[in-house]
Amino acid sequence: MTNPVHIIGAGLAGSEAAWQLVSRGVPVIIHEMRCEQQLTFAHKTALCAELVCSNSFRNDDASSAIGLLHEEMRRCGSLVLRAADNNRLPAGSALAVDRDQFSQSIDQTLRSHPLITFVSEEVTTLPDESWGQVLIATGPLTSDALSQSIMKATGSDYLSFFDAIAPIISKESIDFTKVWFQSRYDKGEGKDYINCPMTKDEYEAFIDALLAGEKTEFKEWEKNTPYFEGCLPIEVMAERGRETLRFGPMKPVGLTNPFQPDIKPYAVVQLRQDNAQGTLYNMVGFQTKLKYGEQQRVFRMIPGLENAEFERLGGIHRNTFIHSPSLLDYSLALKSHPHIRFAGQITGVEGYVESAAMGLLAGIFIACRYQDKQMVAPPPTTALGALIRHITGDATFETFQPMNVNFGLFPPLDTRVPKHERKQAYSVRGLKDVELWWRF
């Protein structure tokens, strides 16, 4: 009988890795510390693959880097992408999901599989070789005990940053005499977002309140932790300049206010559907470290949200990742302890899809080892390959930091292509090459 692979953590990376393994006949034991009696300060359930920050997997257009990653994962039999597609919500060109149904479907699939055993426990030390093959997929909220064990074994320090959570609002509490449905430039279904317009005076007053609002106090050991640029709290963006938000999450371009069609909004706050019933909406780009009372006071200054009922307020938590270029080989194995692999955000990728993608690759690599099959990393011309090259490449300690998938990670095209056609050319090449790799 094949010895089981131990997967520590049932987030997106661990869940995807488990699926890739059992789909190839390799048994799995999943160790998950979350249960009804013990949750993290970011998680609300004990379900596998719970989404805690956003319900969006970002752009689903294959001519974008993240959309290409979506399509590559679909072609590789991804459980996460299958669940996302089956629980999709209207969100323009974005892939947004009903977060509860998404996690429930993955949880049910894994818990009902005959080759998967769940163990509800916290693993506090790095497993030794007697465990056999191990995958660490504990994500950005790796427990302090396991973090210390990993640091001791690798002799390296972690890098950390804060990850902020956006608030969720009840639809029925929104004033629809002031807001309207529309996607920017009418993409997707054209009416996938609720738009809250602001005049210049309203915007200036909002910025003043945002800057003056009382923020979460950091612990002493957290004060030098940098933010990840792709998930900045809105008040941090506002501190960089009063116009920053107008050119970021509150940009008014591509939108027309039907109540004042001849007057362009000075700024716009967008809300994106958060559940299948359409009763909850997420404040797009409004990650925040404001205290709860301040969030309600400041965000109710937004036109249409004066009486907003917040079903979840924003929050902030520390994210942690290892220095993968110096610690991991191309198959995500720890160089000093090759029976152990890492996957997910702990490796230094950023984003739900990127985390799941590393779980997909780790599962495939481990399965290849069990099947005495040569392990081959996907080529860097693919989104999967570009990501794994980023985290296992030659970056130095000073320059390595979490990264979303983007075309800047890809090798240049072999021929000259007009600028407006390059993204499509990257995607065409990537899909062709991932099909060739998938046959290995």
Polypeptide structure, described:
This protein is an alpha+beta fold and 440 residues long. It has helices at 12-22, 65-75, 79-86, 99-111, 144-154, 200-212, 234-239, 292-299, 324-327, 352-370, 383-392, 422-438; strands at residues 5-8, 28-32, 56-59, 88-89, 94-97, 116-120, 134-136, 159-165, 168-170, 180-181, 193-198, 267-273, 280-283, 310-312, 315-321, 333-334, 337-342. The protein has a six-stranded mixed beta sheet, with helices on one face. A six-stranded antiparallel beta sheet has the order 10-11-12-13-9-14. It has a three-stranded antiparallel beta sheet with strand order 3-5-4. Strand 16 (333-334) and strand 17 form a beta hairpin. Helix 2 (65-75) runs parallel beside helix 10, helix 2 (65-75) runs parallel beside helix 12 (422-438) and helix 3 (79-86) crosses helix 4 (99-111). The radius of gyration is 22 Å and the shape is globular.
% residues in beta strands: 15-25%
Major β-sheet annotation: 6 strands, mixed
Shape: globular
Enumerate how many helices there are, as a single number. 12
Helix content: 25-40%
Order of helices and strands: EHEEHHEEHEEHEEEEHHEEHEEHEEHHH
Terminal-residue CA separation: 25 Å
* Unreliable spans: none
State the secondary-structure class. alpha+beta
Arithmetic mean pLDDT: 90
Q: Would you count the extended β strands for me?
A: 17
In brief:
30% of the residues lie in helices and 17% in strands. The protein is built from twelve helices and 17 strands. The model has no long low-confidence stretch (mean pLDDT 90).
